[in-house]
Amino acid sequence: MSANDGDLVERMAEKHSVSPAAVQVVLAALRSGGGRMAQFSHADFGGMSQWSPGMSMVGDMFNTQLKAKLDALCSDMAAHLETSRTAGGTGAAGKEVSYRSQTRTEDWWPAGLGRSGAVGAQNELRYAVFPETRRLVIDDHGALSVYDTGSHRIFGIAQAQSADRTLTFTSQDGLVRIADLPRVSI
Prior knowledge:
This protein is α+β, with helices and mostly antiparallel strands. The chain folds into two domains: 3-86, no CATH class; 118-184, no CATH class. It is built from three helices and eleven strands. It has helices at 3-16, 20-32, 64-86; strands at 38-42, 47-52, 55-57, 118-122, 125-130, 135-140, 143-148, 156-159, 167-171, 174-177, 183-184. The strands form three sheets. Strands 4-5-6-7-11 form a five-stranded antiparallel beta sheet, with no helix packed on it. The protein has a three-stranded antiparallel beta sheet with strand order 1-2-3. A hairpin with a 2-residue loop joins strand 2 and strand 3 (55-57). It is globular and about 50 Å long.
C-alpha cells in the first residue's frame, strides 16, 4: 500500500463510516477485479460480499442500508481507481495504477477474446467474462474452460463455498449455471 493509498483509505473510511481495514480489503478486491468488481469478506459488511456496478451483495443479505453503504464505497473507490489509471497514476513518477493482483498475470485467458467485462478469483478458481465475444473463461487450478454465453449479458457472479465451489452468474434472464452454457474449444 502506497502513501497515497493510506490517504485514500482514511478518507473513504471516514466518509462511509467503515473501518480503515474494511476499506483496504475493498481496495485490494477492486484492484483484483479490474476496478469493475470486488469479491471479499469483511465483518464490516457482514462477511462474504460482492460488488459490481448496479449489484451489491453483503453477508447480511437483507440489510439494505449495508448494501447501500457497500455500493457507495465501491463506486467512489472504483471512480478513484479509474481516474488514477487514466491520469497515468499518482505521484511524481506518474506510474499507472495496477488493478491486477500480483498473484496472477493480466492475460491468463486465451488471446483474441477482447476486453474482459468482469474478472474475479477465489479459492484457486478464477473467471473472466468477455461481453463483446460472448465468452466466459474459467481457470480451475490451471485447467482452462471456455463457454459461450450466448445472449446472456452477465452482470453478477456468485461462488458457493461448498466442496464443489459452484459458480453461478446472473444475466438479464436471471440465474445462469455453468452447466447451462455450451463449452467451446480454446
